[in-house]
Design brief:
The complex is a heterotrimer of chains A (469), B (354) and C (85).
Chain A: H1 7-36, H2 50-70, H3 74-82, E1 84-86, H4 93-120, H5 129-148, H6 153-156, H7 158-164, H8 180-195, H9 202-223, H10 225-232, H11 234-243, E2 248-251, E3 254-258, H12 263-266, H13 273-292, H14 295-306, H15 311-340, H16 347-386, E4 396-398, H17 404-430, H18 434-460
Antiparallel strand pairs in A: 1-3, 2-3
Chain B: H1 3-9, E1 27-29, E2 49-51, E3 54-61, E4 64-71, E5 76-80, E6 83-87, E7 93-103, E8 116-122, E9 125-131, E10 133-137, E11 141-149, E12 154-162, E13 168-169, E14 181-189, H2 191-196, E15 199-201, E16 234-241, E17 244-251, E18 262-269, E19 281-288, E20 291-304, E21 308-315, E22 323-330, E23 335-336, E24 350-353
Parallel strand pairs in B: 10-23, 13-20
Antiparallel strand pairs in B: 2-15, 3-4, 4-7, 5-6, 7-11, 8-9, 8-12, 10-11, 12-14, 16-17, 17-18, 18-21, 19-20, 19-22, 20-21, 22-24
Chain C: E1 12-13, E2 20-21, H1 24-34, H2 41-83
Antiparallel strand pairs in C: 1-2
The chains are: A mainly alpha (469), B mainly beta (354), C mainly alpha (85).
Organism (chain B): Haloferax prahovense (strain DSM 18310 / JCM 13924 / TL6)
Domain DUF7350 (chain B): 229-352
Pfam family, one (chain B): DUF7350
Chain lengths: 469, 354, 85
Amino acid sequence: MTRLRPLSLRRFGLGLLLASLLSLLADPAAASNAAVGLAGASEDNLAVPQWLYLATGGATVGASALLASFVTDRRFIERVHLWQTGSEAGISDSVLRALRVTGGVLGLALLALVVYLGYTGPQVPTVSFAVIVVFAGLRAGYTMFSYLVADTWRALNPWRTVVSAVPNGFVSYPERLGRWPAVAGILALVWVETATDVTTRPSVLATALVAYSVVTLAGAVAVGADTWFDKVDPVSAFLHFYGRVAPVRLDDDGLSFRLPGMRLVTDDDLTDLGDVAVAVVLVWELTFSGFVTTEQGAAAIRSLAGVGLPPLLVYGLLYLGGFAVFLGLYVLAARVTARRIDTFETPLDLAVKFAPSLLAIAAGYHLAHYVGFFVSLSPMLVGALSSPLSSPANPVVLTLPAWFGGLNVAFVLVGHLLAVWVAHSQAYRTFPSRLQAVRSQFPFVAVMILYTVLSLWLISLPTASPPFL
Amino acid sequence: MKRRDAIKTLGIGAIAATAGCLGGFERQSAWRDPPLVEDRPAAVYLPAITEGMKMYGKTTAGPYGVALTYSYPHRFWTAAGSELGKTVVEADDSIHLMASLWDAETGTVLPLDAGVSIEILRDGDLVSEEVAYPMLSQQMGMHYGSNYVLDGEGDYEARVHIGGTSLSRTGSFVGRFDAAETATFEFAFETDDLYDVELRRLGDDAGSRGAVSAMEMMGVPTGKAPAVDDLPGRHLGRRTSADALFDALVVDDGSRFGVDGSYLYVSARTPYNEFVLPMMGVRATLERGGTAVLDGARLDRTLDPDLSYHYGVGVDGVESGDSLTLSVDVPPQVARHDGYETAFMEFESMRFDV
Amino acid sequence: MTTDTDATRDRHTCTACGEAYPTERLLVLHRGARHPDDLDAGEVEAYREAYYEEEDELKSFRIRALGVLVLLYFGFLMLFIVFAS
């Protein structure tokens, strides 16, 4: 098939993309600094009003979607998302097995240490091995590793290691349930993290882990390790979904490198609404905890509780209600698309097809919310991992330079830009008409702009402790 | 986890770099400057977090009884003139060491106004040496302490150097406490022991007026001022200023105190726990029938076995109908722990009508 | 996968893979893009026609999109000059 696109127009389109992005990105960074109040000592004190900063963020995402729509060459799009390099010879079985065994031992050792030191170690959270490893290590750092580098959880998962060593799989798992149990599990875990003492009392954290282990081991032995850790276990679902964004994958076929996020286009492993719900819950839980830790969020909760509702109910309604709203908005976008485009694809099909791009958004949000936390707590994590049995007398953190706030804004935007590209590629795979593919994006981009503005607004607000907790 | 909230929950204060936009990543203690209670009253209040302490040892050195106690490294407030400064926890501080001093014979606690420093050695090599500031804490009362850098876990030797004092001394204290002394302690620093020390969050009570009760510890005096009923002389009254309690008394025959005539003295103490408040500059004006018998006379800081630490001056006599005005021109130059830093700073003058 | 079998519209089904489309044109575009080797001469001609037609539509879309982008760019530039200095 001959190329019918004028080369110059495509080059022009890409040039415009870069120029616009650079100009629109530079300003929000300074805006974020001013908005967050991290005034640096620099001379150009650009004071951008908050509405302008938010509008710029939204416009960046919208503009990038428009720019992506300029790229209409199917072959070019396929080249991008199929581009990969890998080790030609593959990895030998013995090396793979050795890696799996190492991972398993490491995972088990960490779990044992966390539970043991949670009970016997110092009960001050800043020096507790358990609290630091679980929250700074697993929740922040390891998740970042999973989507930035590679998903290694299959090997590291201590519960899987234990269950695989014993006979398992006596009950068949009802397929209709899909991944909904994982959705419920993630919601439950994040609720426990928010509403209980697990972040401040190491012994409570250890008990929670023991309870989690009991449930997981029992369930996995009953239903079978593969099914349980694929469909039900919230931690595995969480890490594997984030891991789909990662560029590196090591599996039985060997080691392969893809462009970040491009696996989201080609791996057709999200199949039903439950999978969509997992992707949405990853985005939602960050937005929720981002909201309740700001002054405005705390004020909203206080005023709602002032009406007479018990505080936990207020949190619960906000939590579950907000999740329903996010999921509903996304499905609504799919419905609008299905109506506007001449196709036999149902709204559910479209929702499932475009759900992988939500993972790119989630990865961007996660990075924005956690990278500062992780970097500043990294000395504590290194200290804890290097000498678990003896805590430091004085936990040390790293201060963050003023420009770090701008980095968070950049991460949110990059997550959205990647999502726009992934959705664009996915549309091209779905629709035979290129114009259909382009037009199908508009409702989803509208939702993305809303998510962007909300997320940028949240990271620019002053922080506060969530009340009543 | 709520990362920004986690930072507060874990007790870490603001992590923004102060070095400006070109500043980089600097090491800082997670306990450097924990969040303070909001809306602190200009009085003694319950702090957000209280720490207990444990003892490394107790000994005597010359006339002094000395005890070495320790706790978590924490921030404290220093008074320089009428300015309040803040000493934060540095990234390398390992421990907060405290020395309590008292007179071995009478058990009176001794705010000496003089240099106490603690030198820490390991295997004969100097690890750190620093002044131990006289400080006041709701749990420990009057003691000398600071945050110290240690070199990991292990065995250390601490030498508490006590300088001779130039405070006025009366009674059996005359001539005592002139010479410098050193008390030596051997201790093993284990972080597990440190984390056994009690750490309590006060929740909703924090910020309200009041004080954590003093910790009674194994024969270590905390520096409570003697009960007013036990103090000799006529009690002219008790007044409060800057949330401190001032009791004015007069002993008609002041010969014991080395003055002709009467001895007018003031015993100052903290509310609630009644610790001695040392190192203040107190002036007295005594008026009788329109004339000033004492006019802004400085009350000397004095140590006495019965009166403990007090502020006294000789006067011909104090008769009924006199009016005494006390003013504090120098706030107590003693460092304070959280809960004491907003009190005892700005004093209104106090009037006693005899 | 096309699953909306309740549609009362015509189903134009691809003989190579079974995908169905509501219009002839969409089927032609699909076959041209996905199964180029399966096409006979008439179908190649039909694909070319449909492709060029789509090209024109895309061109006009691109011009409008470019217009919006330029408006966005200069609009925000103005906003920043006015409000952020």
